[in-house]
Specification:
With 562 residues, the protein is mainly alpha-helical. The radius of gyration is 31 Å and the shape is elongated. It contains 25 helices and no strands. It has 2 domains: 317 residues, no CATH class; 205 residues, Up-down Bundle (Methane Monooxygenase Hydroxylase, Chain G, domain 1). The relative contact order is 0.08.
């Protein structure tokens, strides 16, 4: 039908209102998701620590985390990050992805429940949230973001369902004509997938569909196919997140996509054949022509689709994993590439989880530093260079980890609470201390190699002193490592005592060494090496004290209450 310029302007205005509503809805989702993520950060951390090979607990964790952050896409990206970091296996990740699809249906239920009284409450909630944002207290600000986010979701929905958007008879007529033209299931699924992929939020896409059904511009039977398409479109975020990740991360994204495609195919076949009985069942469940009843039918279908698909495919987790491994092969070059073991940039959206993984990465770095310190003395004690390559490889990982984790923490520090800023500050100092210890260990090894080349060696007494001092240092490694890993403050006083004893040993050993030189019982050729070793070990002790005391003071200073 031909449209006059005035009618075209009306349509454009309605489209702008619709897009504005979608925009406000997405902003509200982000506000609420960020606030819930911060307030429930430790809860999500505990959930992730309970990850096991139990499929049902995996589904529960996926549903729980997604219900908290209100985004299955964010959960999928987080899982990809954990798999890429090697913390989670494909068998553990697959049920979590399935559970995430169930968790995201909560948004649809909330959208369908809106009515005039509920809307007034949400507007008031949004206003209260904005006012709370001016309060300096961090917890009040988080609560304000939560309130304003939840309120904005419904403000966006009201904009979409307003007279300016769908209330115009011309708009209703236009959509009626459009859906008469494209009344074909596969085309409707494609529309749902493309729209969701563009806005990267299945919750927002489903919210738009529910609103359109509630206003009467979209028939229920057609809406069901668009909702199915939205579940495929939401996989785009995960697919994009897997770009540049390792093979297992790509497999997670493929499993997510395959899971939704299989579910969509099954439900498309059922609805295509039994469209009228399915629609009648939904109508009988929520009878009436009021907007809430119309909307709840779509929301109920969304819940049934995701729960049923999970129930059908949960027994086939192994097969899905095997299929993903067949399609996406391992690349040999991945093994030779330096990468962080537990940390991935995809975790930046979840600071509590990211900090948990950073701690694991530092623990691993500490183990490499300790190993290098032990191995570095083999060349001195045994006159052997058999560990040279291991020390070199470990030092390369230590240097890379220090640099990569520092960059990660800089990016992470932009979006954390005040309490986490102190932890990040401590991690910066610990990384620096561990990197310095790694350098000392490398120097110890080089001293041994150089002495071996020159065919010189320490006297028996000199070697005994070095061994005694080194044993104290290894004791300090155990204590500082336990303190850092388990936040154990009880042994910090012992760490201080050991560090003071190392200081005393340094003075004694240097004095004894010069006495031997004066007596002619020691070669002057070894003097520079001996002094460097003793001084280096003393510096290692200082750094280990910093690592241990970082749990009570970000700078590692002992001037803190323990």
């Amino acid at each position: 039908m031909a449209l006059s310029p005035e009618e075209i302007m009306q349509l454009l205005q309605s489209l702008i209102w619709l897009l504005a509503g979608v925009g406000v809805f997405i902003v509200g989702m982000n506000f609420m998701g960020d606030a819930l993520e911060k307030s429930a950060g430790m809860g999500m951390k505990r959930l992730l620590e309970k990850i096991s090979n139990n499929r049902f607990s995996g589904v529960g964790i996926g549903a729980g985390v997604t219900a908290i952050i209100q985004s299955s896409s964010a959960t999928s990206v987080m899982v990809i990050g954990l798999v890429n970091a090697g913390v989670m296996t494909l068998m553990q990740a697959t049920p979590i992805i399935m559970g995430a699809n169930i968790g995201t249906t909560i948004t649809g239920v909330l959208v369908a429940l809106k009515n005039d009284y509920f809307n007034m409450a949400m507007y008031a909630l949004a206003f209260a949230g904005v006012m709370m944002g001016f309060v300096q207290k961090e917890k009040v600000k988080i609560a304000g973001s939560l309130c304003s986010g939840l309120g904005l979701i419904f403000v966006g929905l009201n904009i979409m369902s307003s007279e300016q958007a769908f209330g115009n008879p011309l708009v209703e007529t236009m959509f009626t004509e459009i859906f008469k033209t494209i009344d074909f299931p596969l085309l409707l699924i494609l529309i749902g997938a493309i729209f969701t992929a563009l806005i990267q939020s299945s919750s927002a896409a489903t919210g738009v569909v529910i609103t359109m059904v509630g206003t009467g511009v979209l028939p229920l039977d057609l809406a069901l196919f668009i909702v199915l398409g939205a579940n495929i479109g939401t996989c785009v975020t995960a697919l994009l997140a897997s770009v540049g990740a390792n093979a297992n991360s790509k497999r997670v994204a493929l499993i997510h996509f395959t899971f939704n495609v299989i579910g969509t195919a099954v439900f498309t076949a059922i609805i295509w054949i039994l469209r009228d009985p399915v629609v009648s069942l939904l109508v009988s469940t929520f009878p009436g022509d009021d907007p809430m009843s119309l909307q709840m039918r779509v929301s109920l279908f969304h819940v049934i689709f995701n729960v049923t698909t999970t129930v059908l495919l949960l027994p086939f987790v192994k097969q899905l994993v095997k299929y993903s491994c067949t399609v996406i092969k391992d690349k040999k070059e991945e093994k030779d590439t330096l990468s962080l073991k537990y940390v991935d940039d995809r975790l930046l959206t979840m600071p509590p989880v990211a900090l948990m993984q950073v701690k694991k990465e530092i623990d691993y770095m500490l183990s490499l530093v300790e190993e290098n310190t032990r191995l570095s003395f083999v060349s001195i004690d045994e006159g052997s260079m058999e560990h040279s390559e291991t020390i070199r490889q470990n030092e390369a990982i230590i240097d890379f980890t220090n640099s990569a984790l520092t960059q990660f923490l800089i990016k992470l520090s932009v979006n954390v609470e005040e309490s986490d800023e102190k932890i990040i500050g401590a991690y910066f100092h610990v990384l620096n201390d561990l990197e310095r210890i790694g350098d000392h260990a490398e120097n110890f090894h080089e001293i041994g190699v150089e002495m071996l080349d020159k065919k010189i060696a320490f006297s028996e007494k000199a070697r005994g002193g070095i061994t005694a001092m080194r044993e104290r240092i290894l004791q300090m490694f155990a204590i500082s490592g336990d303190a850092f890993e388990n936040l154990n403050k009880e042994e910090l006083s012992e760490l201080t005592v050991l560090e003071e004893s190392v200081d005393g040993m340094k003075k004694e050993l240097i004095a004894s060494h010069f006495a031997r030189l004066a007596e002619g019982n020691c070669s002057a050729d070894v003097s520079p090496y001996y002094s460097s070793l003793i001084a280096g070990l003393e510096r290692v002790a200082d750094h280990l004290v910093n690592v241990g005391f970082s749990i009570v003071n970000p700078t590692g200073s002992q001037k803190a209450d323990t």
